[in-house]
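Record type: monomer structure entry
Structure origin: computed from sequence
Chain ID: A
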Amino acid sequence: MLTRKKKRKCLFILLAIAVSFCVLILYAFIVEPNRFVVTRHQLNEQFASQKNSFKIVQISDLHLKEFNNRAQHIAEKVNKLNPNIVIFTGDSIDKVEQLDGFARFLSLLNRQTAKYAIMGNWEYWAGVDLKRLTEIYATYNCRLLINESILHNYGNDSILITGLDDLVSQPDLIKSLEGFTPQQNHLLLAHSPAYRDSLSSSELVAIAQYKPQYMLSGHTHGGQLSLFGFAPIRPNGSGRYVSGWYRDGAVALYVSRGLGVSILPVRMGVVPELGYFEWFLNSA
C-alpha cells in the first residue's frame, strides 16, 4: 500500500508529465509554426576572392492561408536581406481564394528585385488558374517558370535559371533547356526533391552537358514533425530527402524546410526557414 508521501510523489510526476505534454502541444501548434529563421549558405566559395557574390533568397512552401502580421514580417525580412533575386519554389498557396492575400504579400517585396517562381503540387491540387497566377506574379516583377529557363544578367556575369514543373504534372528538363547553351552559372528549381532521382536517361545526358551547379527544392517541410532529426512522415515526392544539403549527385541539392504548414497546422523540431544564398559566381 502506497504511503501518503509516495502518493504525492506519483501525483507530482503525473502532473509534471501532463504539464509538459500540454506545453509541447502548445509549442507545436502555436509557437513553432509561427516562427522562422534565416539559414545562410555560401556557394562556390573557391571563387570568393573575385568578390562577385550573387545573393538569393528562397521562399518555399509559404502555404499562405491569409495575409497577416507573420506574412508582413516575412516580407520585411526578405527586403532587409536585400537579395539580387527572390526564388519561390512552389506551394505558395493551397487554395484559390488565397490568391488575393498572396498578391498583397508580393506587393510588399521590393518591386525592383527580380523574382522567379515555379509550381508546387498544391497550386495544381487547388485548381489555381495558371493565367491569373502568371499575371499576379508578373505584376510584381516575378516570372513563373514552367519547364522554362531564363538567362539572368548580373553585371558582366549571367546565371541560367531553369524552372521545372512539379512531379504531379510533367517536369521536362529537355524542354526547359531548349534554345539555351550551357553556362558557367546554372541553377535548377524543382519543387519536389524526388525529381532529382527520377531523371530519364536523356535528362541525365543534359545534366552532364549543361552541368548545373545547384538545385533548390522544398516540398518536404522537413517532415513538419522531427524526432531527434528523424522525420517519420513526409509527403509523396519527397523521396529520400528531408531537408538541408545533399551533395551526393551530379547536382548539389538544397531542400528547404519551407515556411508554412499543410494538412496539420503543426511543426515540432522543424523551424520554418528563409534560405539566403551567397553565390560567388564563376566569371571564367
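Annotation 1: The radius of gyration is 21 Å.
Annotation 2: The longest helix spans residues 4-31.
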